[in-house]
Amino acid sequence: MSSVTGHSALVTGAASGIGLACARALAAAGAEVHLVDRDPKVLVLAEELGGAGHVLDLMDPVDALPAEIDVLVNNAGVQHVAPIHEFPAERFSAMLELMVGAAFRLTKHVLPHMYARGWGRLVHITSVHGIRASAFKSAYTAAKHGLEGFSKVAALEGAPHGVTSNCVAPGYVRTPLVEKQIADQAKAHGIPESEVPEKIFLQRSAVKRMMEPSEVASAVLWLCDNSFVTGTSLAVDGGWSAQ
Per the similarity annotation, which family is this (predicted)? Predict the structure, then answer.
């Protein structure tokens, strides 16, 4: 039996990719899942998992979402690939607000419930870009580094209340977010789109394959089941950060 069995869990960016894989894994482990996404198809997906779907753009207030949450998975994210001198300033600010600001607002929203129960799990899906950098990804790298730092603070504050906070930092995962980068990466690096997976995505990975979303979800469940692991980042990056 998993530690999440019988607990409530909320996953953002849950209509596809890593978020959907996490929601499925949590539901299979016996959690009551809440799936959040701006894509309305999250309602159908939530019904399939026996959970609840919430259509919400996380740039908006989160007060309408349930606060009685025991496991929060901050996963929602976007990507924009461009050199700094060409990067739209408003796009930079919006990406930080979505990936750091929304994670802060959601964490603040659910912590009183976790503290009252004396148990809670905060898991933030960052990236190898939360511990390493890549050219042309200034906003994404800044946001993921920021989320890593925020998680450490939440770990220190949450420890006396039985709440852990950790990050999962994957390399390139087979998701729509990654697939949409191919054209931009080809343009930024001046190479054909067909060469992007090998020359960009897997260049620094010792394991020469893309991760599957379910592998990230397994790491999330592992962190939920370990009460002494907090304030850390679990790199599941195929050896990228070993270099």
Answer: Belongs to the short-chain dehydrogenases/reductases (SDR) family.
Q: What residues are annotated to the active site?
A: 140
Number of other residues whose CB lies within 10 A of the CB of residue 22:
31
pLDDT tens digit string along 19-41? Answer: 999 999 999 999 999 999 999 99
Q: Which of 158, 221, 225, 194 shows the shortest CA–CA distance to 22? A: 221
Residue 82: how many CA atoms within 13 Å on its side-chain side? 11
Strands (E), the chain: 8-12, 32-37, 52-55, 71-74, 120-125, 163-170, 233-236
Is residue 225 packed enough to be buried (19+ CB in 10 Å), middle (13-18) or exposed (0-12)? Answer: middle
Question: What pLDDT digit, counting tens, does each position of 189-208 carry?
Answer: 898 888 887 778 888 888 88
Contact 156, 115 (CB under 8 A): no
Pairing between β-strand 71-74 and β-strand 32-37 as defined by DSSP bridges: unpaired
DSSP per position, 70-110: SEEEE---------GGGS-HHHHHHHHIIIIIHHHHHHHHH
Question: How many residues would you count in the chain?
Answer: 243
- Provide the token pair at 176: 């729509």
pLDDT tens digit sequence for 129-184: 999 999 999 999 999 999 999 999 999 999 999 999 999 999 888 887 777 778 87
Average pLDDT, the chain: 95
- How far CA 104 is from CA of 109, 140, 187, in Å, comes to 9, 16, 34
Nearest to 37 by CA among 51, 27, 25, 28: 51
